[in-house]
């Protein structure tokens, strides 16, 4: 027998008493109105405006909602008339509806509408695990961007038929009707937002079309916050969408922002579907893409309204269709069998489901035969761990640095060095997060933009006869070159530099080289005999490490400044330069480089270049995600990774190798994502979103490096939104789950970094 409304009301009063709060007048009034409706034998609806609720009201409200399912109330309708929604929780940006968090399942929810939830940027792994009957999900004009974590979360919805990240309609349609007949109102563009639940009638097994509408994102410990985004800090919205921000309403689709559909019909919101990949001929070498996948452009035009940023990801529609095989409608457009087949083909060509293109997580035998190592479980939500440095100025003291550049040690898996905006050089054990050596700037350096470890040989031969230990660090040759933007260049012998009782190195045990003005890059050759320096000039300087002398200046090597110079990993005389004149050049010192060995050109200014670990390839990164892999022998194009551009001329992109030469990681300073691509095929393995917990905690890629000792691990130098925050180094492990409060609890840090070092 269903619980009568009077009993439900009494339980609500008791819940308020337990919390020590007065009952909310709007909730009491809603219960009274529902009771009157029931007495008149009308549909009994519990309706409350979110705007009438305070934070303290949500604990007893959740109790009430949990009990309503078995009560006389037929429907629940809770809505907000705000133009934006600030999601509940402590300024949370990550959505969760998990049973563990709420203590109950949303088993009767069939429709969930989170349109215009402008604080919503992602999902937790178990976000939808308590919604077995959800059939329709609408997420228009949110901040969701990541295809990988989004599809992984949505795959937990076994009944999902219809999904929307934007509202699409025929250009001659007056409105934007849904492809399904359920709840037409949720695509009408109104601003009362939330999720809708059908409740079972106490006397009938049929499910009437009734609504529960709650502005909800993440009820951490039932702490809910119904504030409108109008009260939020401007930091939360202005910077986070540097490449994706659009005004509300119909969206202009600019030609420099690739969509999942390849043809833009015009500049007035009309887009064309059908030719899913007609502009990717140069994305991969050899033109290996099966031409049967391509179709002619369909003449029918569609208008896109209120898109979320994920819609601008390349091959967005194909990816979602291939990842969610039970989906019937995407963005109001039905999914036919032909389109699903094309989507699967495009997914196979452009993406890897698992590392090394494995088809199954359980295919261990085949994997061992092909790759000779056992790969642990692949995680959709990887671990992100900001380094918290211990020591340096006094014992057990944690202090804040402003890192600007960093490098892993080439032979000791525990060591990393970073230089700061204040001219400090800090050697750390990144496993224990303890400082090994701290070198203050001593007023001689500004921002440290160039760092390079010596790899094999000490700069002074007699050092090879000495074996010393620095605490827990084995007897390695710990020497490195550090260069700053004011031209200062020094070699630091970390292992033999005397330190004070407070951990600071005294100003001895280092070599000072002739200055190189406006320096941005240094690199040591494979035999540790020479190093090169480049910067905001057209010249490159060659130094002898052993003597400390500047051997030669190579003038006018490019038409514009040379941002990065890199020696080959195995040939001590070959080096490559990358310049904002759009050229990359290969040089040989033995030929007294008056002419390059060859020149390769990009369509935009080159930010950096690096050799693959075996020297077979050059990885070239130009402005705004133009990432290409060249054959090192002659500069011919091997792969164009086809990463979508944002249209920003200030979106400086950097890319490095990971797992030897098997994978490439790429990030840009205007985006909070690191892309992982197969270096052999160009297929995208996944994107890693650098999202912390809390509003305004998105991180943007300043620099990054693959861990040379750990597969599918990297570190990212991240800058935060808030100008008052410092940059920090974040370690990323793609093989460990990071969907936890610990891995997502970031400090709100950001520092506006100057200089262009690689």
TrEMBL record:
Domain U2A'/phosphoprotein 32 family A C-terminal: 313-331
GO cellular component: Cul4-RING E3 ubiquitin ligase complex
Annotated keywords: Repeat, WD repeat
WD repeat extents: 555-590
Name of the molecule in the record: U2A'/phosphoprotein 32 family A C-terminal domain-containing protein
SMART domains the record matches: LRRcap, WD40
GO biological process per UniProt: cellular response to UV-B
Stored InterPro entries: DHU1, DHU1_N, LRR_dom_sf, U2A'_phosphoprotein32A_C, WD40/YVTN_repeat-like_dom_sf, WD40_repeat_dom_sf, WD40_rpt
Any matching Pfam family: WD40
